[in-house]
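ok trying again, last paste got cut off:
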Amino acid sequence: MKVFLSFFYLIFRTKISKILNRLKFYRKYKIFLHETIIIRNIENIKIGKNFQISPYCSLFAEGNNNEKIIIKDNVALNYNVMINANDKGQIQIGNDVIIGPNVVLRSSNHIYKDTNKSIRYQSHEGGKINLEDDVWIGSNVTILPNINIGKGSIIGAGSVVTKNIPEYSVAVGVPATVIKKRKWVKKIQNVKFAVKKIIFILKNTK
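nice, full thing came through this time. structure:
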């Protein structure tokens, strides 16, 4: 009987906690959360306007080391996206970002240097993830710590992002590699700079 009551109490407490959490989120952002969505430590999460979050998504920002999730305006999360800044992590998502289903953003990693100690007891090393504006992340993508994905970039489905992606790039694969550019921003900037320099020299040449 005691076991049954303890089990019942645990389920009841979990349900109440989830309901209170959803109410807290609604009061802060005026967004109704589906019952399958998990939000942990709302105090460390900031969300902009027109945020869309699908069922089975989770946002984690737990810990005592300045963990943060910052999501700007017009961001959409498809089904089962996990954004995890637990254990010393920080994640920022820019404006107009769309994230496909089953995507994982994890900004911290296990420490594993000490081979005389189990990995699970070696704590975590914090990191940062930054998605700039107008980024599209395809389905089943994993983004590892200390990554910046530049403005206007696309990450193909199933990719694992292990290094920074320049702006206006299309990157795919494991690890994600840039296969083409949507816009040659740097080249255009270099040409403009060169033209300005030539004009300056011509004007100052007698």
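cool. DSSP finds two helices and 20 strands in the chain. The chain has a mean pLDDT of 87.
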